[in-house]
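agent> fetching stored inputs for the 6-O-phosphono-beta-D-fructofuranose docking request
agent> found them:
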Amino acid sequence: MNRIVISTGGGDAPGLNAVIYSVVKSSLARGWEVYGSKSGYRGLIEPDELIRLTADQVRDITSTGGTILGSTNKGNPFAMPVENEAGEILLRDISDRIMTNFTRMGFSCHIAVGGDGSLEIAHRFAVEKGMPVIGVPKTIDNDLEATQMTFGFDTAVSTATEAIDKLHSTAKSHDRVMVVEVMGRDSGWIALSSGISGGADVILIPEIPFNIKTISRKIADNELDGKLYTIIVVAEGASAEESGKIHKKTEQSEIGRQELLLGGIGEWVAAKVRESSGKDTRSLVLGHLQRGGSPTTFDRLLALRFGAAAVRMAENSQFDQMVSLVNGEMEAVPLADAIRERKKVPLNSDKVMTAREIGICLGDY
Ligand code: F6P
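agent> prediction call returned; pasting tokens
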């Protein structure tokens, strides 16, 4: 009999509970046991934080947002911040303690559901400590390599599209420029998909540095066409040709690095556009709304398929691998391939061409 432990790490994404449901049900059907580790690896550090997952516990969770296990984007077990007696913060490697608990509990596999940070940690456990790990790709940003899609992305795009739809009427009533900042870190997947679907006039993504003059020209062209309002969708990681990315603060990332948190480009663009076009301009940040709520049908199904496929991989001892969507089917890919770099929007992709061909300005020309 196998005994599996599942964890959810990094920023949450709609569909996490559907993965948990699917892993639990597929495992119970094989006569296996499943435990959940709370808040990433916490259950493997403090076994009190491990919970036995039964059919009762996962009933009706597929359609719910968040994660019943909790998540964290801090605390890399290989470099865990710990305060010493002098009040200094030191980084300690507690990975051996986790391995001891993993073995003591008799676990045969760890299913790690996460984005690049969590999967990088999972891969280190596999390579350096011999932990039998299987990854499941999660992130609203859709920036993981080696899978066509991560779960959570479709829901985030739907939420952003709905918000952009709603901006049209208010922008039109006041002849305004509305700038909406969406998430996505250094990739423009959310901005591009929601911007096209929501009828944006301008979409600014990290992959294409933009020019304020080009945006002002688009606003002027709109006016010549009798359209007195303009909707601009900007990805949080986008930047102008002449300036760098805009950050709101620095934070310690999941893997223990000091990372700058993106945020503020929407207001920056609004100020520049106001100045150069003279138009009444407002900005808003969609923020964590994009991570919340019930997963779309697409995300639920993808998450359920990922969970069941991960259990099949456990049955076949396909460790240090990640379940992935390839040509619409489930495949196992090496974890190393998934975390090598973050997936960007290709500039010659169909989505970019579609945007340009239907008259959307991408800020470069
Ligand atoms: O990776 C998911 C994500 O929502 C990014 O789009 C965003 O930049 C970041 O997480 C926000 O992180 P936090 O929840 O720590 O504010």
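agent> quick read of the result: Residues 4 and 109 are 5 Å apart (CA to CA).
agent> awaiting further instructions
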